[in-house]
Request: fold
Amino acid sequence: MDDRTGAVFDLGYKPYEGERLGRSGAIRGIVKDGMRRVLGLRRKARKKVYPWSLVVFAVLPAVVFVGLAFTLSAFSPDAESPFGGHAEYIGLSGAIVLLFVALAAPELLIPDREEGVLAVYSSRPMTAWDYIGARAGALFGVVASFVLLPNLLMYIGFAALDDRGLGSALIGNLDEMARILAVMTAYIVGYGAPALLIATYAKRTGPAAGTYLAIMFGSAGFAEAFQRIDFDGARYGTLLSLLQHPEVVRNWVFDKPQEAAPIAAGFEPWMSAAVIAVVAVATAYLMYRRYRDEL
Amino acid sequence: MAASALSAHDLGHAYGDVVALHHVDLEVPPGRVGLVGANGAGKTTFIKILLGILTPTVGKVNVLGDDPAEDLVAVRNRIGYMPEGACLPLSQSAADFVSYAAELAGIPAREARQRASDVLTLVGLHEERFRYLGDFSTGMKQRAMLAQAIVHDPEIVFLDEPTAGLDPAGREEMLDLIGRLGGFGINVLVSSHVLPDIEQTCDWVVMLDGGQVLRNGPLTGLTESSVVEIELVDEPDIVAAELARLGATVETHGNVVILSLETGDPFLMARDVLASTGAPLRRLGARSTTLEDIFLGEAPADG
Amino acid sequence: MTANPALVAAPTVEVAEVSKWFGQKVAVSDVSCSFGPGLTGLLGPNGAGKTTLLRMLTGLILPSQGQVLVKGQKPRSNVERYREIGFVPEESAIYNTLTGEEYVMFAAQLSGVANPVQEARRAIETVGLTTDKDRAVGGFSKGMRQRAKVAAALVHDPEILVLDEPLNGTDPVQRAHLISLFRDLANQGSTVIVSSHVLQEVERMTDRVIAIVDGKLAAAGDISAIRHAMSDIPYRVLIECDSSRRLGAALLDNERVFSVTIAGNRIHVETSDLGGLGSMISGLARDLDIRLSRFAPEDESLESVFRYLVGGR
Reply:
């Protein structure tokens, strides 16, 4: 009686019968890929150095501050935190946002264009707006994380040290959290949009980052110059100070003294918020113009 | 499955003043279709319109039952595309990218990984799939590009110059893979200058010239005829004379005799004359019009 | 005495026992061949040493061993020799803002030609770009750009023209023009060496081929003679008829037929004697009352020959 059996399993092509998530799946994929790109994940080691160093710089001080604050309060419960509050920390975060998006935005957009990957996107269930939104979303998401995280840490830290006790302080200070979120948005959009815009047109990552930083830092100097010029519309030149608008919003929201050029030229702080919004909208439109012919 | 895989109705497209496509009306059945035309004939424009990248200035197209100008996402849900030239991110590995390409088509992440793995094996990329695409040779890159085009099991895939830059061995492998796509249930549109590639892989051909459709029909129709071509080892005169004596219309070009008959079977006559004259035969067959003949305008008007 | 098909009687370019290595990698290994007036095809898989050989022919690099002689002299040691060679590499940058004429003139000036304007016009006319010479190269089609590059290589009237993949990206019409251009030059006595992967075209335009596989000379000469020289590989023939089984069985009776494979109304025959089979097939079909609709050797093409050279069967 022959009990032997054998079979050959077909390793050929199998049609895919499983779930298809359509457009939402595509968008989610682009966002995840964008976040990985920006942080250098699943890529060569050297692509991780710059972004992660910045993330460490963004988060570590808060950890240190909170740690020290706890230690100091242990020795003297009435001592105030000598390291400043959210307003100051967000200023530091802002600087890191600037440096981060300088390289992250080009990494997000330029390889896809220059290496021809847009052709792949053009055969997937998504539109040009989906792509732009998803890439911008990935950038903003990652940046928001390393801005929010340390401030959240500090928020909880301060609440823990607060006389009212942790729970009540957390709720009582919610207005502070709202301010943090608003200012964070101003920095992210104010710095992120120009970076995305430059990355939409530049051909190489290095020069794109360099151009961005030159323009941003230059814009402040430029604006200062406009302050000194003595003709009628000159003060509008100060609105070019892309570098300083988020700072103006921060000082406005946290009720701190203002020194930036646009304020010195006599503009109200909401004007800075308006400029940030206008630049963002213009960026979105120009990005769409650029991408709609290839996607 | 739609009755026709692709169709165009009075399609036209212009870039400013330059007219790229003009009065294009066609229906193309499912299967393996070749798209041929000179550089500048409108092939790329046509493909971009099918993909929905361009909206036609006039008229409309239909891909698998949907119009990309109206239902872009619905069309793109079912198509794959292997563009001409590079389309690969050099700083990612093949496995990673093909998996991402599957996710982009809406396949959940875990299944995407599995699909990518299967398809990479299918196209012949093994351990190298974990290396960065920037380190791949041309042949390997072409295979990775094909992989991303089919990883999501599309209903139709557009291949633009799939054998460009490949050496003869690479070309053979690529054509073999393309030939097998039909068996996977995937419709194929191949746009190529290399006419033998089209002849080898396609059953239907669309020929564009100056933005208009020159020809749209089955490939086999082009090559069947009742004209017989006989290539002899030496002088054809004896054979030619005997065929003429039997009433055939005969032409000679070098060692080749071309014969046609008004009534009767030219193949039987050819066989008999060859046997009786004992002339050594090199090649015998129906006179075939190749795509190239049509392209270069040398073919008879009615293929 | 049989002549070595890798050599020609009156060579303009000679390659004598040439080897080239880059560190550990031997790109070209002991290749000896020569080129003369006419059109020679240079074939080989990617990475097989073809491009390295071309660069040694044109003097861009030196052999590690052996020598390359152009009209009896080494190209690198004698600047005059550069004048004899025109080279059209596979990738070459072209300034898109120059007009066709300006580009060719630029090449003329670089080559130190006596009358650049005149020579440029002549070269442009040879390649058939006269009507478009005043247009910017950036607006040229692929085929026109190739022709412009050929004109630039011809401007100093070289006797030897070396082209690396000149037909890439050209459509059939452009290809036909370029091929007839190369053939005209070859017929006028130039030594034209074309390296290409498009084997069907190589087959049609060349007088002889040189094949390099793994850095070594794998085959040389006339294509069907090369095939014939592969005597250990039987010829494959495709036969179509209306009664394949009967014809197939009858063929198996022939001792020069090694195998018969039947698929529908197609018979694939392997035989050592292609000529013999061609001579007897019509008679056999008539005797068996079988209608013969096709008799076609399947592996005499350059593609098949190439496949055998590179990978065995």
Chain A touches chain B through 41 residues (CB under 8 Å).
